[in-house]
Structures are given as C-alpha cells and as structure tokens.
Design a protein that fits this description.
Order of helices and strands: EEEEHEHHEEEEEEHEEHEHHEE
Number of helices: 7
Strand order of the largest sheet: 1-2-3-4-5-6-7
CATH topology: Metallo-beta-lactamase, Chain A
Helix content: 25-40%
Shape: elongated
Largest sheet: 7 strands, mixed
CATH class: Alpha Beta
Number of strands: 16
Oligomer: single chain
C-alpha cells in the first residue's frame, strides 16, 4: 500500500510513507495484452487485475532460455491474459514457474499448462492444493538458468528466482509498496530474515510481482527493513498494561488509513504481534494484546 495518490496501494497492504533513503516507484498504466520488454531476454505481460493489493496488475514474466521461453507466474484465472501470454511465447513456452500460491499469481497455471503443454514448477506444499505442480522446487535448485531461493514470509511457499544479476522477487519485495505478511501463512520473523538475506545480495535488477523493475535494489531493501523495525518499535510503544485489540492498535499505528486497506493493515499488525509474542515482548490475552 502506498500513501501517495498515484501509488494506489499494493500487494502490499501496509500503510506506508516514503522510506527514509529510498522511494517507492510509480509507473503509468502499462499496455495490456502484449509482452513489454523489461531487460534483455526478459518481458512481462501485465494482467488486467488492478486493485489496492495488486497495483496495475500481476506481472507475468517471459524469460528467454536455451530451449525456448520460461513463464514466471502465469497470473490470475483470466482467459484473455492466458491468450496474451501464449501469443507472447510464440509457441516456445517450455516451462511455467510459480513464485507462490496466491491466486493472483497462480490462477492461470492450469489453463496455461493446458494451452502449451509446459510443465509447472513450484514449491510443495503449495498454498493452493488444486494448482498442478509437476516438479517441486526448493532452496538451491536450478531451473532453466535460474537459481531458486526459498523465501517464506509473505507466504510459506514463496520462492524468488535469480539469474545473471536479475532477482525476481515476486511479492517478497515490491517496488511500489510494502508487502502484506498475513498469518498464519505469512510469518513476520521469516519475512525479515529473508529481507536481510536479499539485502546482502548484489543484484543489478529487481523484478517484482507487481509494479516496475528497480535497479541496484540493496539500499531499497535495507530501507524496507528499517521501516519494519520502526513499525515494530511503534507497536511496542503502543502496547500498555491494559490489553488492546488489534483494531484498537491499528487505529493508533495506522492513523488515517483508507477503510479499504484497514483489513490488510490489521493482518500486518497481527504478524508483528505474533513475532513479538514469540520473542517474549508481547502477551496475548484472548483477542487482546499487551506488553509482556
């Protein structure tokens, strides 16, 4: 989610302000139904599923490989989008990779598989048991020249992919807003661990699941980490001896947030509280929370 009007929110979900030392990116609404060049050998088809959690829509990437095209994240279950991806692949789509099991990324997996005959690769177990996965991927695997990084946090089955200085970060890091970390499949402690891991890399390009690419992303990722740490500090300062509900705390932490983003903000806040509980710094009493 983002605060500036042109940043209508994100697969993000947290009410964000410009990060200290870094800025969120915006872009004009991309052309629909065609493959847009990103960097040499990589294109994206932006699905027509804009919204407060998806920005202009899900990025479906087509990545050149020695034997044809690799598709990363087939996108939502939308026949027009599937047709556009098939056309962009020019009959050369050889495999389909899934970053994680949220429907805006994998809804079209079965239809694209049926249209191309390409095998589907992803983490197992997937958040969506009905999504066809022909080949399981996990940390350290290699597929079509891409290195697989298991990065749970935004989702338990989340994968990032890296190749020759390009990091496909899906929803773990986006360039236009922060990401929702919604329990139980989202885990704030794991999310921060893998943010730090990505910040230590020296990638030249970051290609997110929603929004535009970003060059030399390490400093931006460090700013995201600092933002989360500051948010956690604010939550601790808001906790007192008298127990408060997540909604009560959200009214303090996310003061002035748009009502349509309230639920996502509360999920992020709960993620922080569960992390603090495991660390012995917050205590739950029924549906309410106080400082430990």
């Amino acid at each position: 989610m983002a605060e500036a009007p042109q940043q209508a929110a994100a697969s993000a979900g947290e009410h964000t302000r410009p990060l200290e030392g870094a800025k969120f990116l915006t872009e004009p609404e991309p052309e629909r139904g065609i493959a847009l060049p990103v960097i040499p050998g990589i294109w994206r088809v932006v699905a027509n599923n804009p919204g407060p959690m998806t920005y202009h829509g899900t990025n479906t990437y087509l990545i050149e490989a020695e034997d044809g095209m690799t598709v990363l994240d087939p996108g939502p279950d939308d026949a027009a989008h599937v047709a556009a991806v098939v056309a962009a692949g020019g009959g050369g789509i050889r495999r389909i990779l899934l970053s994680h099991g949220h429907r805006d990324h994998v809804g079209a997996a079965a239809a694209l598989r049926a249209a191309t005959g390409a095998a589907v690769f992803g983490f197992q177990p997937s958040l969506q048991p009905d999504v066809p996965i022909d080949h399981a991927l996990t940390e350290g695997d290699e597929v079509a020249g891409l290195s697989v990084l298991h990065t749970p946090g935004h989702a338990a089955d989340h994968l990032c992919f890296a190749r020759a200085g390009a990091l496909f970060s899906a929803d773990h890091v986006m360039t236009w807003s922060t990401s929702v970390v919604s329990p139980p499949n989202g885990d704030m402690a794991a999310y921060l661990i893998h943010l730090r891991r990505l910040a230590a890399r020296e990638d030249r390009w970051l290609l997110p699941g929603h929004g535009p690419l970003r060059g030399h992303p390490a400093a931006f990722i460090r700013a995201l980490i600092a933002h989360r740490v500051q948010r956690e500090k604010a939550i601790l300062e808001s906790l007192g001896a008298t127990p408060a509900s997540v909604s009560d705390l959200a009214a303090i932490i996310y003061r002035g947030i748009s009502p349509r983003l309230q639920a996502a903000a509360e999920r992020n806040l709960l993620g922080h509280l569960l992390k603090l509980e495991r660390e012995g710094r917050a205590r739950r009493e029924g549906e309410r929370w106080r400082r430990a």
